[in-house]
């Protein structure tokens, strides 16, 4: 177990702090897998959990949290829990409905951080999370992320979430949001790896006191979300990554996670494998030097794995 006190903390623009590494729960099925992953992670020293309405596994995550609290391993205040509002809930009267469901499923009274999951909006409906026409084309909604975000601001006032932010937003969208936001988003969660270094976006956000958070930091190796052969680049076997792993007596995953932390970012590491969950947080007995961070960033090819192809026609598609 890693001592949770040794885990680097980031400080948000509202003064609140969060552990720099969190357990991601995307593609962690509610068949016992995500329950075991969350329990294991908490036992290993993780205190940050990254969830979302659309992951469809909140109830199991919530049970693992409840059992970890009941056993005395942690208290609720020890944990930092993030979730995300889904695109079918962006109308101002629907954001609270999504939040109510999230809290109910997680068996919590508040979230530490709530994000707008994507800048696009889908048809506002309770019938399906993926409203589509007869040709399987997604049906775009007529609301805007500004409306959803302003509704989130009200949830901060009500004490249902302590911080709010966005995910998958580009610079222009953040600029537009900041013109009307009463509460500045604390972070923007995006895909990030050395092959998609996001350095321009990171610097842009930093200038505005917004933290960049990385998802899919390992390049989605072996992900069942993608068809076979879709992932073209093997980041875990990149020669530079392997050279640094050998130098620091770490594995490639640990180098890639540390790369983000040493750039002042938060990073979400998803796994349901107990050994990988354990090793992914074993990051705080070394750090990369500035030249190594720059070398890794120089690998940038703007190679994005999660392009959300079905949403390219939408007005707020970010890429």
TrEMBL record:
Keywords: NADP, Oxidoreductase. PANTHER family: ALDO/KETO REDUCTASE. Transmembrane segments: none annotated. GO terms for molecular function: oxidoreductase activity. Belongs to the aldo/keto reductase family. Residues 21-300 form the NADP-dependent oxidoreductase domain. The record marks 84 as: Lowers pKa of active site Tyr. The active site is at residue 55. Coiled coil: none annotated. InterPro entries: AKR, Aldo/ket_reductase_CS, NAD(P)_OxRdtase_dom_sf, NADP_OxRdtase_dom. Gene3D superfamilies: NADP-dependent oxidoreductase domain (3.20.20.100). Substrate binds at residue 117. This is Aldo-keto reductase-like protein 1.
């Amino acid at each position: 177990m890693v001592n949770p006190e040794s885990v680097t903390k980031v400080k948000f623009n509202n003064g609140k702090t969060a552990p720099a590494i969190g357990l991601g729960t995307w593609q962690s099925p509610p068949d016992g897998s995500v329950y075991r992953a969350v329990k294991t992670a908490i036992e290993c020293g993780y205190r940050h959990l990254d969830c979302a309405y659309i992951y469809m596994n909140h109830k199991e995550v919530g049970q693992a949290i409840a059992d970890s609290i009941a056993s005395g391993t942690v208290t609720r205040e020890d944990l930092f829990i993030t979730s995300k509002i889904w695109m079918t809930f962006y109308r101002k009267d629907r954001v609270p409905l999504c939040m109510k469901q999230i809290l109910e499923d997680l068996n919590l009274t508040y979230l530490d951080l709530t994000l707008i999951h994507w800048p696009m909006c889908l048809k506002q409906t309770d019938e399906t999370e993926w409203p589509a026409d007869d040709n399987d084309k997604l049906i775009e909604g007529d609301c805007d992320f500004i409306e959803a975000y302003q509704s989130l601001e009200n949830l901060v006032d009500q004490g249902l979430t302590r911080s709010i932010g966005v995910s998958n937003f580009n610079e222009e969208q953040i600029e537009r949001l900041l013109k009307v936001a009463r509460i500045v988003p604390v972070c923007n969660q995006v895909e990030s790896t050395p092959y998609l270094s996001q350095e321009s976006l990171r610097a842009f956000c930093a200038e505005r006191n917004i933290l960049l958070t990385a998802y899919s930091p390992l390049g989605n190796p072996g992900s069942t979300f993608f068809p076979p052969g879709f992932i073209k680049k093997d980041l875990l076997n990149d020669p530079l990554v392997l050279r640094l792993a050998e130098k620091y007596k770490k594995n490639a995953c640990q180098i890639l996670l540390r790369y983000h932390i040493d750039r002042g970012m938060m990073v979400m590491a998803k796994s349901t494998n107990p050994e990988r969950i354990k090793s992914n947080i074993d990051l705080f007995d070394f750090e990369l030097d500035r030249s190594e961070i720059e070398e890794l960033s120089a690998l940038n090819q703007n190679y994005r794995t999660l392009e959300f192809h079905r949403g390219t026609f939408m007005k707020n598609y970010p890429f």
